[in-house]
Specification:
Blueprint lengths: L2 E5 L4 E4 L2 E4 H6 L7 E8 L2 E15 L2 E10 L6 E9 L1
Length: 87
């Protein structure tokens, strides 16, 4: 089953054997990891955000990652999502 669900910034991740928070993991990314992409039209036109992802590996044939959406006008405004998809 493929899914995407919202995740809190303090949700724990295990990356490279070390436990960290989602917000700390994305704060450590290089600026080039972020890509500006529209998520569609809204009431005031196109909605643009910066997006980045961190792969969590594969579990039982399912690829898993964490996706972050960052506001362009306020880069401190982030939203996090846990994602999974079959091969």
């Amino acid at each position: 089953m493929n899914y995407v669900f919202a995740w809190s910034c303090d949700h724990p991740l295990v990356l490279g054997g070390a436990r960290t928070r989602a917000d700390a993991a994305f704060a450590a990314l290089d600026q080039t990891a972020w890509q500006r992409v529209s998520c569609g039209d809204g009431a005031k036109g196109r909605r643009w955000y910066d997006w980045a992802w961190i792969g969590l590996g594969e579990h039982q044939g399912e690829h898993q990652w964490v996706l972050a959406r960052r506001s362009i006008s306020d880069p401190t405004d982030l939203a996090f999502y846990r994602c999974a998809a079959n091969r």
